[in-house]
Amino acid sequence: MAVARPTPAQLNDIADSLGMSMKSSEIEDFLSHMEGNFLAYDLVESLPDYIPEVKFPRTPGVFPPASENIYNAWYVKTNIMGAPDGKLKGKTIALKDNVCLAGVPMMNGSSSLEGYVPNIDATVVTRLLDAGATIAGKAHCEYFCFSGGSHTGALGPVHNPRRHGYSAGGSSSGSAVLVAAGEVDMAIGCDQGGSIRMPSAYCGTYGMKPTHGLVPYTGIMPIESTIDHAGPITANVADNALMLEVLAGEDGLDPRQYAPKVAKYTEALARGVKGMKIAIVREGFRLAQSEEDVDAKVRAAAAEFVKFGAEVVEISLAEHAIGAAIWTPVACEGAQAQMMLGNGMGFNWKGLYNTSLIDAHAPWRERADSLSDSLKITMLVGQYFMTHYRGRFYAKSQNLTRMLKAAYDNALGTYDLLLMPTVPLKATPLPPADAPLSLVLQRAFEMIPNTAPFDITGHPAMAVPCGMSDGLPISMMLIGKHFEESTIYAAAAAFEANTNWLEM
């Protein structure tokens, strides 16, 4: 099939947009010399796309009625059976709805993508099914994943299973809810500013953001490649470590992966923390939005590690206080460039491009008014700085990320783990439908200051529930060296085995 050739008027508009002034005769002349290029495009169009085979049979699933979806956490329910045996045989999995599952609808929380059906399985899907898991469905998430609350999804808010009407966190809201409610054993979450760890903190689950590149992001709708992470959300530490064993490792298709070091994470579960050195990071506490009970219970949880044989000290790490600010230009400009202007995929990397997603996502421009307010403000900020500052702040933030990473690495040269609250506050009431913009945005971004820095530095970080207050969970975050997830699991397992966080 031949691709459409530009009209002289179209080519003139393109020239104008590039700052070129051309006469009609020049436009015609250039057009006459483009046919060789167009023939190459014709050939590429005629070839079948080169995409991985879908291995396991499935049906499109069903949209559950409200009576079977009391938290609004499900998007689609499925029953896709994996291999007859494997590490995850008998385990049920929910996928965040930015993860491609061939033949099953995906909307990534957005009205503009509703109706899209992927034709590929994400690498994580194939690995889960190869390990014997059952994919139970797709979990609701925030509108294109741009919110740490659970109120921006196009199909309505997701409710916290521990208190209806309260936020479940985001953007992997449905994933954490379905695990916390016991509807699935495990879930896939994705994390660019804290979106595995924040809903885990609000719902009381274990959420691991692995080292950047440890888990392939292939087949998951990107936000920004340098901060894209995928990882497990589970109800206990053992399942989390087991799931990461299945997910981790190179797939040869993801440029985020640079010689990832994998391990048998389940072997760390009985290691304990005797002799381990853990540093409480002072700058993770007493933030503007911090709640006293959160700070107090996280400090009390840290003290428990002393009973298990660890050395626990408090340190100052001044760079952490500016980490979220350094993250901001990367998230705003990077997401605008790749996810929105780049139609989800962007350019200049080798790997698996999802062309069906590009085609489905590109018309967002025709429905831009329907985008969520949390996404709109991100786009407006990102576009302003790209247009008027030429991307220099994105570039400078990427440079400053190396300074921030070095600061954490320096501390982790002395200590095995860093510790702080995952989020500074407990789950908040969902904003009402008529909430002012100020409240909608506050509830979307107020919880990110401790989580976002580790997305740009790539350090592994895990949300570990460590107490309850007023009927809502509180969570501590454990941070380790790059590819030292095993150390985090050893500490988390020791804490889980020797305490009952629901009674703390």
Secondary structure layout:
Elements: H1 8-17, H2 24-32, H3 35-46, E1 74-81, E2 92-96, H4 123-130, E3 134-139, E4 159-160, E5 163-167, H5 173-180, E6 186-191, H6 197-203, E7 206-209, E8 229-234, H7 237-247, E9 277-281, H8 292-307, E10 311-315, H9 323-341, H10 355-361, H11 373-389, H12 392-414, E11 417-421, H13 437-445, H14 453-457, E12 461-469, E13 472-479, H15 485-498
Parallel strand pairs: 2-3, 2-6, 9-10, 9-11
Antiparallel strand pairs: 1-3, 4-5, 6-8, 7-8, 7-12, 11-13, 12-13
Helix pairs in contact: 9-11, 9-12
Kindly report the name of the CATH homologous superfamily of the largest domain.
Amidase signature (AS) domain
Classify the secondary structure makeup into a structural class: alpha/beta
Relative strand content: 5-15%
Order of helices and strands: HHHEEHEEEHEHEEHEHEHHHHEHHEEH
Low-confidence stretches: none
Quick one: CATH class of the largest domain? Alpha Beta
Based on Cα principal axes, name the global outline. Answer: globular
Q: Describe the strand arrangement of the main beta sheet, using strand numbers.
A: 1-3-2-6-8-7-12-13-11-9-10
Keywords:
single chain; 504 residues; alpha/beta; Amidase signature (AS) enzymes; eleven-stranded mixed β-sheet; two-stranded antiparallel sheet; 15 helices; 35% helix; 15% strand; globular
